[in-house]
Structure formats: structure tokens, C-alpha cells
Design a protein that fits this description.
The chain contains 20 helices and no strands. It is an all-alpha fold. It has a single domain, classed as MFS general substrate transporter like domains (Growth Hormone, Chain: A, Up-down Bundle), CATH 1.20.1250.20.
């Protein structure tokens, strides 16, 4: 067992493991709070899911702006400083959220948190792509999923326990963990931004931001983004609508919701690395279609089943799709990106999360408050079918290009 762990460790450079370790600590803090955010808003301020959805949507709009600026800054000045900034500011502003008693004030501060906290996301993803060669990125991003979900085992379980007593403890814990992570990044993590291969004219910050037009005019990349948005629009319901749905429709206690979420994390920790070794042998766009198929099955189940064991089964099916799709989507985004624009392409890739965050909770809230809540899961199944077809078309159109070949073919080529 120790030899196997050592062999896995030796596959990646030390800097990668520093990124992974700090990410693990930070995700524990995020997962203490994130799954229970909609529960907190609806309970604390006595608002419906529609209002909570609008709050989450505006938070995502701010996050998209922050991510766009952060991606340009990471390509211009480097990754490390942007990551530190995002950790410190989101910790301080997020802590303030726990003490706000007026909904309008909470609303405004939540937007600020979204703006600042999202600035570091493109830098973090670009840093992983900086560190690893193309043929190792699938396994590297897959390992990050293992690490993230190991944190999911810990975070929601503790978060559900703390939420049972006082939601304020969630905000306090998240802020402390973010500051600890920032100190570790400052002490241990070097800069990874690639140096230009040839001397280029000095670029202004405005020119760096304007460089986004390259990504926004990359039609194949935008097609990939569109298909991913449809897929994640369904996937993100597990972090926003699912907790409220289980509480209001099936009367599931937050502690059991934490257990359901932790079952996903356990599945990833046990199986992700093995799954990654398998999926890298197959065309990546087809793997995205396969991931969406499992999402379709798992999320549609929530509209038909009514017991906690079956909720767990549905979550495990969703997690199979997650294990296939999450590392593959990151690898594809990095494959589309020119090296000198990696963080900006990753910022545009962030649209696959921010756009669903803007639309998903609000739309689900409208369904919850005005129609049968089960329709959320039926509509999700239809969206997954559309996304599956889109990924298949991308495979037909782009799959023959060298940068979208299987990882073993990339290794031979390099």
C-alpha cells in the first residue's frame, strides 16, 4: 500500500502537491458553507427559493466579472499573487456575511464576495496546467478531484453538524480556513507562470484584458463552452436546489443531506484515480457525452424516488458522471488555450459554472414556488440529452485534431 502511494506521489512534481495540499484545506472551508447557503438564506431571512435563486444569480454575475479580471491579471502578473488576494479578501468579506441581519445588506455583500472570491479561480486552474505536461493533465486534474472530494467527506459532514446548532459557525470556520490556506500559499507555493519563449513587446493591462477577444472568437471553444453550460446547469442543482428540495418535499434533515453529499465524496476518493486512468484512453469529447449521460440518469431519479438510501444511489450515479466529466473538461479547456493565454481561456471556461449559477437557482426557484418541484429534475434530464448530442457533434468535428487526441496519443506525439 505504501509503495503504491509512493508511486502515485512520484508521478507528479513537488509543486503540484503543494497546490493540491493547499487546495484540500481550502475546499474543506468551502464545503462547510456552500451546500448549506440556500438553506441559510431561506431560513435566516424568511425568503422563498426564488429570492434565494436571484441572490445566487447576482453572486454568480459578480463572480464572472471577478474571474474575467482575475484571469487577465494572472496572465499579466502571475498566478500566486492573485490566489493570495482571493483567499484573504473572500475570507474577510465572507466572515462579515455571518453577522449581517438585513437581507438587502446581505445581498450587496454577497455580490462583493462573488466578485473578489472568484478572481483566483482561473489562476488556480492555469497553475495546474503550467505545472503538468499535456499527457499528465488528465491524471493531474483527476487527482485534484480525489483531493477535493476527500475534503467533501469532511466539509459537509462537519457543516451539517454545525448548521444544526448555529449557521454562524459555518462562516467563522470558512474564514479561518481561508486565512490558513493563504499563509501556506505565501510560504510554500512558487510562481508558475510560463516565461515567453521569445522576447515580446511589453503589453499593457488593458491589452491583456482585450486579449479575451481571441477566446471569445474561438468558435469551437465557444461550442464546447455552450455544451458544458447545459451540463453544469443540471449538475449545479446539487449545490443549490437539492438541499431545499429534500428539506421541503421529503423532510430530510440537513445532517442527512450532508451524508448524501459525503457519499459522493467517498465514491470519488475510492474510484477517481482508477477512472481517470481508464477515461484517458478514450476520445475526450465522447467522455464528456458519457458523463452527461450519468447526470441525466442520476438527477432524473430525484423526481421519482423518495427515500434517503435511493437519494444516495442517485448521488453515486451522478458522481460517476462527475468522475468522468470534471477532469476531462479541464483538460479540454487547457488543450484549447494558447500557452500565453491560458488563464484567460480558463476564465472563459469559468462561464460553464457562472452562467449556470446565474440561471439555475433562479429558474429552479420559479419551478419550486409555482409548479411541481419534481419538474426541476425532469427538465434537467432533457437538458442533459441536448448536451450529450452537442458533445458528440464536437467529437465528430474536432476529435481528429492532435490536441484533442487521447492522452497516450499525445505522449507518443511529444
Amino acid at each position: 500500500m505504501l509503495d503504491k502511494l509512493r508511486a502515485t506521489y512520484d508521478q507528479f512534481p513537488r509543486t503540484y502537491w503543494v497546490v493540491a495540499g493547499t487546495h484540500f484545506i481550502d475546499v474543506i472551508g468551502n464545503t462547510l458553507l456552500m451546500p448549506f447557503f440556500a438553506l441559510y438564506v431561506t431560513q435566516k431571512f424568511g425568503v422563498g427559493m426564488t429570492q434565494a435563486g436571484i441572490l445566487l444569480a447576482t453572486n454568480s454575475v459578480a463572480g464572472m466579472i471577478g474571474s474575467t479580471i482575475g484571469g487577465a491579471l494572472a496572465d499579466r502578473f502571475g498566478r500566486r499573487g492573485i490566489i493570495l488576494f482571493g483567499l484573504v479578501v473572500s475570507a474577510l468579506s465572507g466572515l462579515t456575511l455571518g453577522f449581517v441581519n438585513k437581507f438587502y445588506a446581505f445581498y450587496g455583500l454577497s455580490v462583493f464576495v462573488g466578485l473578489m472570491g472568484s478572481s483566483a479561480q482561473p489562476a488556480h486552474q492555469a497553475m495546474i496546467a503550467d505545472i503538468l505536461p499535456p499527457e499528465k493533465r488528465s491524471e493531474g486534474f483527476g487527482m485534484m478531484r480525489v483531493i477535493s472530494n476527500f475534503a467533501w467527506i469532511i466539509g459537509p459532514t462537519i457543516g451539517g453538524f454545525l448548521a444544526h446548532y448555529n449557521f454562524l459557525y459555518l462562516f467563522l470556520s470558512d474564514a479561518v480556513i481561508s486565512i490558513i490556506t493563504a499563509l501556506l500559499v505565501f510560504r510554500l507555493l512558487p510562481e508558475t507562470k510560463p516565461q515567453p519563449k521569445e522576447k515580446t513587446e511589453h503589453e499593457s493591462l488593458w491589452q491583456t484584458i482585450a486579449g479575451y477577444r481571441v477566446a471569445l472568437l474561438d468558435r469551437p471553444y465557444l461550442a464546447f463552452i455552450f455544451a458544458s453550460i447545459l451540463m453544469i446547469l443540471v449538475y449545479q442543482q446539487m449545490y443549490s436546489s437539492l438541499s431545499v428540495y429534500l428539506r421541503d418535499v421529503h423532510h430530510v434533515d440537513p445532517q442527512f443531506y450532508g451524508l448524501i453529499m459525503s457519499s459522493s465524496a467517498v465514491t470519488v476518493v475510492i474510484f477517481q484515480f482508477g477512472v481517470t486512468k481508464i477515461i484517458k484512453k478514450y476520445p475526450p469529447f465522447l467522455m464528456m457525452a458519457a458523463a452527461t449521460f450519468f447526470y441525466m440518469i442520476g438527477f432524473t431519479m430525484y423526481g421519482f424516488v423518495a427515500t434517503v438510501p435511493l437519494f444516495v444511489v442517485a448521488m453515486v450515479i451522478i458522481t460517476v458522471g462527475e468522475m468522468i466529466g470534471m477532469p476531462t473538461s479541464n483538460v479540454l479547456a487547457a488543450s484549447f488555450a494558447p500557452e500565453e493565454m491560458r488563464a484567460r481561456y480558463m476564465a472563459v471556461f469559468g462561464l460553464t459554472w457562472t452562467v449556470p449559477s446565474m440561471i439555475g437557482p433562479w429558474a429552479a426557484g420559479l419551478v419550486f414556488d409555482n409548479l411541481d418541484p419534481n419538474y426541476v429534475w425532469y427538465i434537467g434530464g432533457v437538458l442533459c440529452i441536448i448536451a450529450m448530442l452537442a458533445f458528440y457533434v464536437l467529437h465528430v468535428k474536432l476529435g481528429a485534431r492532435e490536441k484533442f487526441q487521447r492522452a497516450d496519443a499525445q505522449a507518443v506525439a511529444s
